[in-house]
Design brief:
With about 130 residues, the chain is an alpha+beta fold. It has helices at about 50-65, 85-90, 95-100, and strands at about 1-5, 20-25, 30, 75-80, 110, 125-130.
Length: about 130
């Protein structure tokens, strides 16, 4: 799979994502449901702790990707939902610590929401991946 960044403006690179990417040579696509800070039984974890929720949500996303023989480097699109955008942005280094070392900057959208499906969840990340 070849990825070509498309960035008519470079500002998004400061936030760790490309405006768009051209994906060529992929033969499989994976569409993931939103991953949150829940344990293996679906019980919410890290109530009131945005950073903890972000880390576990990413762990859960990586588990889904791994089950499909993929990893974060295969992610081609992210949508992030947060009940507190400012607090999410304060902890965005969590995403950088996972995507930065693999030089991945998939296009993403961060959306502020009133609440998520299961209280007390504050952060949800959904992804599309290709291999």
């Amino acid at each position: 799979m070849n990825r070509t960044p498309v960035n008519p403006w470079p500002w998004s690179l400061n936030f760790g994502y490309n405006q768009a990417e051209i994906i060529e040579g992929a033969s499989r696509q994976l569409v993931c449901a939103g991953q949150t800070s829940v344990d293996a039984e679906g019980n919410p974890q890290h109530a009131g702790d945005m950073r903890g929720q972000m880390m576990l949500s990413l762990d859960n996303l990586e588990a889904v990707l791994s089950a499909a023989d993929m990893g974060l480097a295969n992610v081609t699109r992210l949508t992030i939902y947060s009940t507190d955008v400012d607090e999410s942005l304060q902890n965005f280094d969590v995403l950088g610590s996972r995507f930065g070392p693999i030089n991945a900057a998939p296009p993403m959208t961060l959306v502020g929401v009133t609440r998520l499906a299961i209280p007390p969840l504050m952060f949800e990340i959904e992804a599309t991946a290709a291999a």
